[in-house]
């Protein structure tokens, strides 16, 4: 919601307060702004879409992090290739054949495996 819409709503709320209780519109503006912001927050809550598709090729940081997690799990005695889905595809495709979305999913799987062991 744009700030101009929030301000318009605040002025409308302030005018209602003036009509109901009397006085100046500016006397009610502070409380009206608080109410307008609350309405805006409730109207459009922030939602983080975990299914958001990432486009493009895998980044260097993702490659580094995947390699780091695979080494850590290997040091703990876990056979990453057999137990974590997506590792074989990652190893076959390489850095340039893996998309950001696939890399992100693989990182989540590796982190879940690491949490399960710890």
UniProtKB/TrEMBL annotation:
<dbReference type="InterPro" id="IPR010878">
    <property type="entry name" value="Gp111"/>
</dbReference>
<protein>
    <submittedName>
        <fullName>Phage protein Gp111</fullName>
    </submittedName>
</protein>
<dbReference type="Pfam" id="PF07410">
    <property type="entry name" value="Phage_Gp111"/>
</dbReference>
